[in-house]
Amino acid sequence: MSGWELEKKDIRALAERLGVEPCAVAALIRVESAGSGFIEPGMPKILFEGHIFWKELKKVGLKPENFAADHPSVLFSKWDKKHYRGGRGEYERLVEAEAIHRDAAQSSASWGAFQIMGFNYAACGFSGVGAFVEAQKAGAAEQARVFGEFLRSQRLVRFLQARDWAGFAERYNGSAYAANKYDEKLRAAYERCVAEEGRK
Predict the structure, then answer these.
(1) Which residues of 171-200 are buried (b: 16+ CB within 10 A; e: fewer)?
(2) Which segments within the chain are labelled E, that is strand?
């Protein structure tokens, strides 16, 4: 069982596995996680997405319309940030959704320091979302390992190797990345890390 905070050795290990600079990994961590991937030991940070839950219920053969009226904060057809509660409040929403369908609910939240959506479990090397969730609970180093598998499966490593922040951002965050200045944030975090390492 690893610790609950990512340590430099975890960052170096992930960077070595991916064949990228440690500062490229550190930049991703700074931008994606805003610190720890846990609310408390064993409880990963999550963000539950009700519009994704709508789609995930359809995938398992359920009609979301049949549940929406009774569960308006966890089930809606279009993204709406007003339902976010943050922190433990997101777990309250998850538990409510799990009562409708556990796997669909877990697939509809983003997990851990890197906020990987649960429906990406196969891309992270897992046979089911439950195993993915357990890995997210296991510790910071395991979250980093899973993130590395996701980056590999999505063929994103080459952009980190080339420090192509815009290329990475577009494929990782979608076409709206520029509006959010995601690539600029990554570049700034990378340059800050390089500067910090150079001062040591």
Answers:
(1) ebbeeebeeeebbebbbebbeebbeeeeee
(2) 38-40, 43-44, 46-48, 109-111, 116-117
Q: What are phi and psi of 113, to 5 degrees?
A: -60, -30
The predicted model scores a pTM of: 0.88
Give the CB-side neighbour count of residue 120, counting CA atoms within 13 A.
20
Q: Which residue has the higher pLDDT, 172 or 58?
A: 58
% of the chain beyond a pLDDT of 70? 97
Extract the tokens encoding 69.
Answer: 């009226």
Torsion angle (degrees, nearest 10) of CA 23, 112, 14, 145: -170
Residue 35 has pLDDT above 70, yes or no: no
Distances (CA, A) of 36 to 139, 143, 144: 10, 11, 12
- Cα separation, 187 vs 174, whole angstroms: 17
Whole-angstrom Cα distance, residue 30 to residue 5? 13
The reported pLDDT for the residue numbered 1 is: 41
Whole-number Å distance between alpha carbons of 187 and 63: 43
Nearest to 76 by CA among 48, 54, 61: 54
